[in-house]
Model the fold of this input.
Amino acid sequence: MPVPLPADSRSLYRHGMTPDINHDESARINVLASLNAAVAATLSSGVKLAYEQEALPKLTAEDLDLSNPKAQTGATVREAIRPSPVYQSWASLRRMIQEMNRQTARHIALRQMGDLQERADVLNGDANDDALTLDPSLNVPRYLANADNHLQPGGYHTEIEPGDMTAAATYDVATFVTAMGMFGPKGDSGGRGMAKWLAERHPTFKPKRILDIGAAHGNNTLPLAAAFPEAEVVALDAGAPMLRYGQARARSMGFSNVRFVQGAAEEIDDSLGTFDLIQTTMVFHETSGTALPEILKRIYAALNPGGLTTNLEQPNFTPDTPVFDRFLRNWDAWYNNEPFWVQLHGMDFQAALHTAGFHPDKCIESGVNPDLEPDQYPSWAGRISRHDHEHSKPEPAKQGYNGESWYLFGAWK
Ligand SMILES: C[S@@+](CC[C@H](N)C(=O)[O-])C[C@H]1O[C@@H](n2cnc3c(N)ncnc32)[C@H](O)[C@@H]1O
Done:
């Protein structure tokens, strides 16, 4: 079975804050990324077979009936497939790859904690006072503070010492393996895709103020800042380490139109002002059933009339999403510390937008293709082989997730 290979991690773009990664660490990262891709490409089909041949015969009509809450989440399949050796191999490899990946990235970041701070001090030396606004009194939302999302030790907010930014360096290094290289050389293929989508679909829309909520270290914020160089861009996140690192990273890449602000999305108020474009990328799936509707309300309140909110997320389940697919897509909730995925997949985003105040006629649902910066990234990245003659034709983009196409939900105000 051909395996789509990620690029060599050493071909990734290095910005001014990129941690130093030695030979052995690069080798480990490359093995993990390729193994992740191989598991996805080969063992996944075995899991489908295990479902059909081992789990399905054990499932009752009620276990498969989508009006049954356990079937709705795929939990009935999870229980029936658990004894299968193929499933166990697939699941334990996925878990092990993620654990080793996050621990490797954490180790890389921790051993240069002081050096990162010194680099940031130099890069931020002559920045304006409002380029970075931290709020030490912020209560990091419980769903972030308690989860270590996707097995990242300490999550996005942990500070080992004042000024610590290792959480951001960890996230920056680790996303390559998790995304199997499909986030591109700068980890910004979502933001680049979003900027292209706006240019193609709404070429006259020129936002003057942009808010990126849950911006982390600004990886997907900067493509918007580049697309609208006249705009003032605010990158909001709950994690101080992400913002410190993000500001220095942005400056090292020549950006001066982005402010990094610490805050919780469900507490956004007038102090940030109003915006023409409010973006989120991969944020809502890490929130909660209480926070999500509140954040949408705050987005509505913070948008100027004629403004737009665009949110890149995993698509929700449709009424006919098969039970097996539900199980597969909720797997991360159970085994990869993504506790809100189950509820998110069952949500109706359009209804949530209406409840937040958006007019039903102004709501949108679309797909955004990731933009991998083809001029700078090896042409074979994400393809079947590193050898030209073995390349398969890339699949046409389809609306889905997992790097093929981002699901977008949003609305005009
Ligand atoms: C999966 S990361 C995505 C980061 C970035 N948008 C990207 O595209 O890579 C989710 C980010 O959202 C932030 N976040 C989640 N919930 C938040 C909230 N309620 N308020 C502020 N930031 C939040 C987290 O701290 C984290 O940095």
Observations:
- The first strand starts at residue 132 and ends at 133.
- Residues 211 and 234 are 5 Å apart (CA to CA).
- The domain at 181-386+397-412 is CATH 3.40.50.150 (Rossmann fold).
